C-alpha cells in the first residue's frame, strides 16, 4: 500500500534492534484517515471470503480492526493480554511471546464470542516473528473457527513470521513489508504483488 509506505518513510523511525517506530500515526497516536484507508484496503482484499468476524489482540490491533470492521459490517473480537475481573464464563487461552517487550504472556478470549460458525479475518498492526499471530491462530483452532485471512499493517520481512505463515498455507496480506534499512538509513520495502 503506497500510502502506508510513504507515511512510514515520512514519519517512521528505525531504532537500534530493528525496532520500527510508527507511534506518531499507527500505534500510540492514531491517524484516523490513514486507518480508514487501511480498513478499506483490507476490505478490498478479503471482501469475497465470507468474513463474519474480525479478531485481533489488544491493544494496538484494535483500532485497525475497528476501522476494517466498518467496511465488513461485522463485530470485532479481541484477545486480552491481562486477566480481567469482568471476563466471565469460559475462555480460550494461549501463551504468546512478545518480541517488543521480550516476555511471555497469556491471551484470553471469552468462548461466547468465537465458535465453529465464525469465518475470521485476523488483523494486527505489526508482525515480526509471528508469535502473537500463532496465539490467535491457536485460539481460532480451539474455537473451531475458520481463518479466512490474516492482515498485517506492517511486516518485518527480514524476520520469519510472515513467510512461515504463508508457507503454512495461510492467506496473509501485509500492506507494507519492511526488508531493512540501507547504508543511508532509508527504509527498504519488499515490492508488493497486485
From TrEMBL:
It is found in: Cytoplasm. Pathway: Purine metabolism; XMP biosynthesis via salvage pathway; XMP from xanthine: step 1/1. It is an enzyme of class 2 (transferase). Residues 33-157 form the Phosphoribosyltransferase domain. GO terms for molecular function: xanthine phosphoribosyltransferase activity. The keyword Transferase applies. This is Xanthine phosphoribosyltransferase. It comes from Allofournierella massiliensis. The lineage of its organism: Bacteria, Bacillati, Bacillota, Clostridia, Eubacteriales. The gene is xpt.
Amino acid at each position: 500500500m503506497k500510502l502506508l509506505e510513504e507515511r512510514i518513510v515520512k514519519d517512521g523511525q528505525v531504532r537500534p534492534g530493528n525496532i520500527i517506530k510508527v507511534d506518531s500515526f499507527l500505534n500510540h497516536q492514531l491517524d484516523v484517515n490513514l486507518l480508514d484507508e487501511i480498513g478499506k484496503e483490507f476490505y478490498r482484499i478479503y471482501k469475497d471470503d465470507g468474513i463474519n468476524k474480525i479478531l485481533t489482540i489488544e491493544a494496538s490491533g484494535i483500532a485497525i480492526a475497528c476501522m476494517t470492521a466498518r467496511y465488513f459490517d461485522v463485530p470485532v473480537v479481541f484477545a486480552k493480554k491481562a486477566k480481567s475481573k469482568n471476563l466471565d464464563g469460559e475462555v480460550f487461552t494461549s501463551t504468546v511471546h512478545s518480541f517488543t517487550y521480550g516476555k511471555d504472556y497469556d491471551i484470553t478470549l471469552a468462548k461466547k464470542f468465537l465458535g465453529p460458525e465464525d469465518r475470521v479475518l485476523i488483523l494486527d498492526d505489526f508482525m515480526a516473528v509471528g508469535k502473537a499471530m500463532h496465539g490467535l491462530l491457536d485460539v481460532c483452532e480451539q474455537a473451531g473457527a475458520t481463518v479466512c485471512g490474516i492482515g498485517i499493517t506492517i511486516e518485518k520481512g527480514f524476520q520469519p513470521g510472515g513467510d512461515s505463515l504463508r508457507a503454512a498455507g495461510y492467506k496473509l496480506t501485509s500492506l507494507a513489508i519492511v526488508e531493512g534499512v540501507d547504508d543511508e538509513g532509508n527504509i527498504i520495502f519488499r515490492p508488493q504483488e497486485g
